[in-house]
Write a structure and sequence with these properties.
The protein has 11 helices and 15 strands. By secondary structure, it is an alpha/beta fold.
Length: 291
C-alpha cells in the first residue's frame, strides 16, 4: 500500500495519475453506513471532512442502498448527528426504485411492498397504492426491500405473488446492513435470496448499487461527467463496482465492512483505498496543493 492508503490498479497505477484524477473532482457521492457513520455512531472525522469539501469547492451528496428510511427520515437522522443536509443532497435506493417504476413500468400503480412503514409512506407519497396482505388484493408489482419490520405472513405473501410471475423488483443487493451492535442485520439481498429459494425466482431487476442507475441519477442531478465524481463507500461489491459501472472513480474506505483480506480476494479492484474519510481528505488537499 502506498501513501494515504492508495494502491496500484489498472486505472490509476501511478501517484501522478492519482493526483491528476483528484484535482478534477467536483463532486463526491458518499455511502452512509460504514462510511460517514457506523450504525448510530458518527465517525469523528465526518463533519470536518464535509466542511473541508466545501472549502475546496467540492459538492457532495449522500447515496445509500438502505431504503428503510424515507428521505425526510434520513435528513432528520443526519440532523441529529450534527449534519445539515437538504433533500437534493439525499438519494436512496427507494427513490431510485420509484423513478425506475415510473419510467419503465408506468402502468404499475398497485404495489405489494415488503419494506418498513417509513419506506412504504415514501412510495405512497409518490402516488403508489400499497396493497394489503390479502389474496384478493392483487398488486401490479412486488417490491422487496430491507424490511426491519418483516413479518412471516408478509414474507409468505410476497413469495406467493412472486411465484405467480407478477413483476418483481428488489431495491438493493446488500446481504447485511452495517451496525455497531452485536447482531446481524439481515438486508434485502438475504431476504430476496429466501424468496428465491422458496419460489425459484430471482428479482427481475435489482435497483441499488452496483446498478449504475443510482450514480447516473446523481450525475444528472448535478450535471456532471463521470470523471468528475468520486463514489466513496465501504463495500467493493456495491460502492466500487457501481462507480466502475458508471465510469466514475471508485474509492474504498476501510471504516466499514471491507478488510484488506477481502480486497486481496476481490476481482473488482478499487481505484483508491483509504482507511477512512480523513485519509481521503488528505489526498484531496494534496491534489489541490499540486495544482
Amino acid at each position: 500500500m502506498k501513501e494515504y492508503g492508495y494502491i496500484d490498479s489498472s486505472r490509476l497505477n501511478t501517484t501522478d495519475k492519482l493526483y491528476n484524477c483528484l484535482k478534477d473532482i467536483k463532486h463526491i457521492a458518499l455511502d452512509m453506513d460504514g462510511t460517514i457513520y457506523n450504525g448510530s455512531t458518527l465517525f469523528p472525522f465526518t463533519i470536518p471532512f464535509l466542511h473541508n469539501l466545501k472549502e475546496m469547492g467540492i459538492s457532495y451528496s449522500f447515496l445509500t442502498n438502505n431504503p428503510s428510511k424515507s428521505t425526510a427520515d434520513y435528513l432528520l437522522h443526519l440532523s441529529k448527528m450534527g449534519i445539515t443536509a437538504d433533500k437534493e443532497e439525499m438519494y436512496t435506493s427507494a427513490q431510485a426504485t420509484i423513478e425506475y417504476i415510473k419510467t419503465s413500468m408506468p402502468n404499475a400503480k398497485r404495489l405489494f411492498l415488503l419494506g418498513t412503514p417509513s419506506m412504504i409512506s415514501e412510495f405512497e407519497e409518490a402516488g403508489f397504492i400499497s396493497t394489503a396482505d390479502d389474496e384478493n388484493d392483487v398488486p401490479d408489482a412486488v417490491v422487496v426491500a430491507f424490511d426491519m419490520s418483516l413479518t412471516y405472513s408478509r414474507l409468505c405473501r410476497a413469495s406467493w405473488w412472486v411465484s405467480q410471475r407478477i413483476p418483481y423488483i428488489a431495491t438493493n443487493p446488500d446481504r447485511v446492513c452495517p451496525t455497531d451492535k452485536k447482531v446481524i442485520l439481515v438486508d434485502c439481498g438475504a431476504i430476496y435470496t429466501c424468496i428465491e429459494y422458496a419460489t425459484g425466482r430471482f428479482p427481475d431487476v435489482v435497483i441499488g448499487k452496483p446498478n449504475p442507475g443510482m450514480l447516473q441519477g446523481i450525475l444528472k442531478r448535478y450535471e456532471l461527467q463521470p470523471s468528475e465524481v468520486l463514489m466513496v463507500g465501504d463495500r467493493i461489491y456495491t460502492d466500487v463496482k457501481m462507480a466502475h459501472n458508471a465510469g466514475a472513480i471508485g474509492v474504498l474506505v476501510l471504516s466499514g465492512e471491507t478488510t484488506m483480506d477481502i480486497v486481496n480476494q476481490s476481482e473488482t479492484v478499487p481505484d483508491i483505498i483509504a482507511n477512512n474519510l480523513a485519509e481521503l481528505e488528505a489526498m484531496l488537499l494534496k491534489a489541490k496543493i499540486r495544482l
